[in-house]
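User: Hello! I'm new to structural biology and keep hearing that structure can be predicted from sequence alone. Could you demonstrate with diguanylate cyclase? Please show me the input and the output so I can see what each looks like.

Assistant: Of course. The first part below is the input, the amino acid sequence of diguanylate cyclase. The second part is the output, the predicted structure written as tokens.
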Amino acid sequence: MSARILVVDDIPANARLLEARLTAEYFDVITAANGAEALEACARSECDLILLDVMMPDMDGFEVCRRLKSNPATHFIPVVMVTALDSPADRVRGLEAGADDFLTKPVSDVVLIARVRSLTRLKMMTDELRMRAITSYEIGMQQPERDAVAETGKGGRILLVDDRPSSYERLVPLLTTEHHVDLETRPEDALFQAAEGNYDLLIVSLGLEQYDGLRLCSQARSLDRTRHVPIVAIAEADSNARLLRGLEIGVNDYLMRPVDKNELLARVRTQIRRRRYTEQLRDNVQHSFEMAVTDALTGLHNRRYLESHLKTLSEQASARGKPLAVMMLDIDFFKSINDTYGHDAGDDVLREFAMRIRRSIRGIDLACRFGGEEFVVVMPETNVQVASMVAERLRGAVASEPFAIEKGARQIDVTISIGLSTLERKGEPIADVLKRADTALYRAKHDGRNRVVAAAA
Ligand code: GH3
Ligand code: MG
């Protein structure tokens, strides 16, 4: 899908010029002639990025940007200010309004396309995360947009990679006014430091004496631990080609030397704000994924997870000609525990039982709460003899030691019954294996409980 760019300019000729250049690069372009139109188009979520003229009658670009960025529904759309103003003070004003970047008129084609590509790529990635996180909003988790609008971007953890004292002696105190800064003067150690340090931002000087700063940026982009950490490059004047290369590699933003104090702080805050927002989205996605596959009471996997994963495990076992064992476990007379001591006591027993299961099995075994007081353990590469031993050990681990309930005030005896089965032939449907385990469990109950029964082959 090609990204859609909104070009906002009160002078039609300017808008048409940008439109033509972007269309030539296969972007989809829409235009707006003033701030109000632009806000409407954004509210209808019609675009992935905005190129915003600063000087417009009625509402200027700063105001449009400020409104977009303070609205949770539009704040994640990247805004690039297109301006004839090019003093650091103007740039800072735009950054304070929340702009993601600047292009100075007349706009160079290469820079235009590089910036638009890099920002739309970032937007697409964030959209994907937002979509996945929607499920987690539905189950009542915090909405990151709300926090993002209030986020100051201060108090970040920054790693500055710079080996020239004349440069870092100025930058470190400056950044320290708002953030925690670690300085790395040995570029060859910087990657390790970046991966270990849990940073919100890397600032890399491209004018290192002994090392190619771009190499470091590219390595940071390919390493798992640093892939999502934003990078701001500090470039020497007249190093446009290297800068463009940097943007292609995945550098998020840059400043030219001599570095303007306020612009540096503003750009750093923007990156840190964005970083915190995407991290929160990522956490939400991760969390909702875990909720979807985990049983809340015991922390074991749930039935949904078992059913999707069991198929994979059995196919793997069939393909490799390895055995696979399944045990189904059920607490004996659990209903009477509930009836005698209350539902909370029942829950305590379930939690403790889950813990004892975990302690009795290997890391590669899969333990799930199948429903109610019924549990399933799947053991890859395990034959019926070994599985019987494990089941017997588990039965013993329950029966031999009473369970604490009522916050430890009372101890009760608990027993379980276990039915066991194994994959009998290649390609056998896993449902059949589960069914045999269930039948074996029924026999264990029928034969007097507190015992293990293996299904007949
Ligand atoms: P058997 O030895 O034949 O397995 O008898 P049982 O009492 O264990 O079996 P039954 O199926 O009659 O009762 C299971 C009970 O488990 C009924 C249900 O209320 C209770 N139960 C199911 N889920 C939970 C839960 O999450 N917490 C608690 N406390 N009880 C639960
Ligand atoms: Mg039971």
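User: So the tokens describe the shape?

Assistant: Right, they're a compact way of writing down the 3D structure. Reading them back into a model, for example: The first helix runs from residue 12 to 24.
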